[in-house]
Amino acid sequence: GSRKCVRGRVARPCYEWQHVAVMPASHPLASVPRLTLEHLAAEPLISYHPSFTGRRRIDLAFAQRGLKPNVVLDAIDADVIKTYTRLGLGIGLVSEMAVKDDPAFAPGGGMIAQPVGHLFGSNVARVAFKRGTYLRQFVLTLAELLSERLNRTLIQQAVQSGTSRTGNEDDSGL
User: Fold this and answer.
1) CB–CB of 15/147 below 8 Å?
2) Which of 128, 155, 131, 125 is nearest to 141 (CA)?
3) pTM
4) For residues 16 and 147, what is the distance between their CA atoms, to the nearest angstrom?
5) Residue 63 has pLDDT above 60, yes or no
6) Cα(139)–Cα(61) distance, rounded to whole angstroms?
7) Helix (H), strand (E) at residue 120
8) CB 21 within 8 A of CB 157
9) Could you tell me which residues are beta bridge partners of residue 16?
10) pLDDT value at 52 more than 90
């Protein structure tokens, strides 16, 4: 599959997320209600480096449609992507969490974010733990705060067992 497994780790789904296209509110595509791959392929794009954050899904979506995206900049940080987008270098493709509390994307902030999960699918963030180790209480508390899907019992059972819930020796999904 497309997932890299890491031996000795157990990973659990934390939350789902999708990409958003970010651009200045004055950009011509800002008023398009539902962006297409063709819209995006016609624009300079700024996205994550291919080894980061769902970029493979982006590249695959364009390839499956026979389109070649014009990626003018790869970055490993959403703030870098948003900064160059704000400066007019291109349309940014970032995770929806990267714009959630950013004042630039609030009404009147000058930037907009349009969901593009319909183009690139959804992604799953996971939290990973080393198998067979004792997890301190603050680690378990953090995991529970990260996601409603995680609880101490589930995590401790997965970490202490030799197999995962699926029965696979390693289902880390990393």
Assistant:
1) yes
2) 155
3) 0.77
4) 10
5) yes
6) 36
7) helix 117-120
8) no
9) 124
10) no
For residue 68, which of 39, 49, 41 has the smallest C-alpha distance?
41
Residue 150 and residue 127 in contact, taking contact as beta carbons nearer than 8 Å: yes
* Measured distance CA(106)–CA(111) in Å, rounded: 8
Cα 167 to its chain centre, rounded Å, is: 27
Tokens found for residue 141: 């508390």
Torsion angles phi and psi, residue 129, rounded to 5:
-130, 150
Q: What is the dihedral of CA 12, 1, 57, 113, to 10 degrees?
A: -10
Which residues are 144's β-sheet partners? Answer: none
Q: With beta carbons less than 8 A apart as the criterion, state whether 12 and 154 touch.
A: yes
Q: Strand (E) positions, 76-154?
A: 91-95, 111-115, 122-130
Read off the pLDDT of residues 74-127 as tens digits, 9 standing for 90 and up. 999 999 999 999 999 999 999 999 999 999 999 999 999 999 999 999 988 888
Q: Which residues pair with 38 in a beta bridge?
A: none
- Mapping DSSP to helix (H, G, I), strand (E, B) and coil, where does residue 173 land? coil
- The Cα–Cα gap between 64 and 35 comes to 17
Residue 115's DSSP bridge partners are 20
